[in-house]
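Sorry, I am new here, but would you mind making up a protein's amino acid sequence and the tokens describing how it folds?
***
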Amino acid sequence: MGLLLKEGIDIDLIKTALIAFLSIGFLIFLINFLPFLKTILPNYSLQLAGLIGNTSFLGIPIAIALLPSNTINLTIGFDLGTTLFAWIFGPFFLQKKASLNNNINFKELLKAIQNSPASRGIIGVLIVYLFGLERVLGNYLWIPARIVIVLAIIIVGTRLGIITNKKTSFFNFNKEIKYSIILKLIIMPLFIFFISKTLNFNSNEISAVVLQAGTPSAVSTILMAEAYKTKQKTAAIILFATTIISIITIPILAFLLNTSI
């Protein structure tokens, strides 16, 4: 909310939020619609881990460090779209019982939307704009927003520390986990790159959204897996592996973006 108020809501933010939200939705639909994709990514835990990136905890700090300040709204928008999708549809998918009845429970979906932290943040921002307080509150909330980003990075490290202390071989991947990692670190940023090129984004805009798309799996994927007792170990392994591998892939992405666009 602090970032939204500081930078303001504009067309760039709305545009990238829609790109993130719709891209994740489209890819999940495609995976579940095409049998050969469904075979290699057979459950929502793998799919969400391969599509929901750590856009808040890592993506925004990376963008602040590497990109011009005028691209921050593009980064925040992508994070907003990702967060909305994760917390609206993530719990909805993971708590869905495997049965022959595949009808959408709209009551549960509405509840998920209402409980989404991103939805609440948007409502808060709209209320602030309604009363014309965005400039004043934006300046005050920007400081705690930066503190939260730093603390979020610490939380990521703590979570990874807890994971690595468990007696588990985190590099003994099965094929499904490997495909989820490839989806997250390679296919997702490539998909967003082609979308942004199609939409005639300039070089800084492309870099902003592609770097966000190339972030490792989000901590929220573990939190949701633990909450619904669904493939917790799988979510933990993918988070750990993508975070470690992204130390290499994100600089490569940044280099390729700087040299090719």
Confidence is low (pLDDT under 50) at residues 97-102. The chain has one domain: 2-260. DSSP finds 13 helices and no strands in the chain. Residues 164 and 229 are 20 Å apart (CA to CA).
